[in-house]
Backbone:
């Protein structure tokens, strides 16, 4: 299958398909005319004498230095090689594929001035599975994600390193094995490849997709915890949430109602329950998780716009003028990444309190200590709860906004930067932590519901528990737990519990 991208109209759903899949990706061929027109305009300027930034001048602080027409190709090659200054571990291949697709979309707007040859090479690399080795660190999120994008561009030139068919190779060898030919960059093409927010945006999108899957799964595990704790579904009444009006809250409450519909557990004790109200971690799930849904959706709208944007510099405008601006500044992406981080932190925080409630016999309404069938002899899920607390605390530390930081770079030419790239990159670690927290809640919620036998939960949650038990068996007595936690986290990351619920119950990322 080939995903065809129409720049300006690429949706979050398509971007998630690119991130999670391995389909070939190409631009709509209707983009070709605008791309070629802009490339011709750049070639015209390069052949002339008037200095235009990035075409026949130096870069950044060196923009006042005029470059001879004969040296424009060398200028672009030198730009890429000198900017390959990334450090750290290679970015995940899924993120790199998304970076390349985003660069295609940006070039496809017809404002960058590159030849179709570059577009076709990126499409070929995505189709054949050539994945540039892009070190994770080195961008401050302004003047483009210069260092990481330079590593991508280097492979296109036959330099740098790439992964192909499971091997780490030189860029040239990876292209050759895939049957692709390196390009020699023409005027402005190197700058067009490395200016732009595609690395920051790809990382933020990856964080968003992972975070939203966790958020939806947290509603499932939250429903399990509610039933395990014999919590009341009354606070999920639709009128309560309609009266407030926030869409995320309305959606979260609707999901919780649907998930708990038909449970015997609550009905069994409704007349004799002395509790007037449940703790906030049960009662206020729609308010907290719903607000997080709203925040993630807002970030998603920002990132969808950014994914469709032309963000290099200078740009060929609609009247054929070439104007230097600042679309490479990733402030919108930095803000979106910070919003996602806050939501991830809060989803984990309230889930962790539900875990703590279930393992505490003083709060869990009759469940045995630490959900062990023989507490004392067995510690049950005691330390699983401690692990969830550790992960929650780590996420709190990482949730500090990156966008409020800045430092001057490039001899003070680039004197305010967004820090979007590492602000987005931290979302991968944070969502790993969150998947583990939600996985631990699944362990506790499923165990707690099973301990209510012979009473049974709703049909929806019975399906969830059955799917979960294929991966992680019921805890009868103490055993080596690390494997259970990893399988539970994988079930969250892979959407196993969401799939068990079925369509139409849980919120969607777009509304």
Residues:
């Amino acid at each position: 299958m080939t995903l065809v991208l129409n720049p300006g109209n690429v949706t979050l759903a398509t971007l998630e398909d690119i991130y999670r899949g391995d389909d070939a990706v190409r631009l709509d061929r209707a983009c070709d005319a605008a791309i070629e027109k802009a490339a011709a305009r750049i070639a015209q300027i390069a052949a002339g004498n008037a200095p235009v930034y990035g075409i026949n001048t130096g870069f950044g602080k060196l923009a006042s230095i005029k470059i001879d027409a004969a040296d424009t190709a060398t200028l672009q090659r030198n730009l890429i090689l000198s900017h390959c200054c990334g450090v750290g571990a290679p970015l995940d291949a899924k993120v790199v594929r998304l970076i390349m697709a985003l660069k295609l979309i940006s070039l496809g707007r017809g404002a960058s001035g590159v030849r179709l040859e570059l577009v076709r090479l990126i499409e070929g690399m995505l189709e054949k599975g050539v994945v540039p080795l892009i070190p994770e660190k080195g961008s401050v999120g302004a003047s483009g994600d210069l260092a990481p994008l330079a590593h991508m561009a280097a492979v296109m030139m036959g330099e740098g390193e790439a992964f192909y068919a499971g091997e780490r190779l030189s860029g040239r060898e990876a292209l050759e094995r895939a049957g692709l030919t390196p390009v020699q960059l023409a005027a402005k093409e190197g700058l067009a490849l490395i200016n732009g927010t595609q690395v920051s945006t790809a990382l933020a999108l990856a964080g968003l997709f992972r975070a939203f899957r966790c958020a939806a799964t947290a509603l499932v595990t939250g429903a399990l915890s509610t039933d395990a704790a014999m919590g009341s579904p009354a606070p999920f009444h639709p009128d309560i949430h309609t009266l407030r009006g926030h869409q995320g809250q309305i959606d979260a409450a609707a999901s919780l109602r649907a998930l708990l519909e038909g449970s015997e557990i609550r009905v069994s004790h409704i007349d004799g329950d002395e509790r007037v109200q449940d703790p906030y971690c049960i009662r206020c799930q729609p308010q907290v998780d719903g607000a997080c849904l709203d925040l993630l959706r807002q970030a998603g709208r920002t990132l969808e716009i950014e994914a469709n944007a032309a963000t290099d510099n200078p740009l060929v405008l609609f009247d054929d003028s070439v104007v230097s601006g600042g679309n490479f500044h990733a402030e919108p992406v930095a803000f979106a990444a910070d919003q996602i981080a806050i939501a991830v932190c809060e989803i984990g925080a309230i889930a962790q309190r539900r875990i703590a409630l279930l393992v505490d016999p003083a709060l869990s309404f009759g469940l045995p200590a630490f959900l062990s069938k023989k507490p004392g002899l067995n510690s049950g899920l005691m330390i699983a709860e401690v692990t969830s607390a550790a992960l929650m605390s780590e996420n709190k530390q990482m949730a500090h906004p990156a966008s409020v930081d800045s430092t001057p770079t490039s001899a003070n030419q680039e004197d305010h930067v967004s820090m979007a790239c590492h602000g987005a990159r931290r979302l991968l670690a944070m969502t790993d932590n969150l998947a583990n927290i939600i996985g631990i809640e699944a362990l506790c919620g499923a165990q707690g519901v099973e301990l209510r036998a012979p009473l049974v939960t709703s049909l929806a949650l019975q399906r969830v528990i059955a799917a979960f038990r294929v991966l992680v068996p019921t805890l009868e007595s103490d055993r080596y737990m690390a494997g259970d936690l990893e399988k539970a986290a994988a079930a969250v990351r892979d959407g196993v519990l969401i799939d068990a619920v079925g369509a139409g119950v849980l919120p969607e990322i777009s509304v």
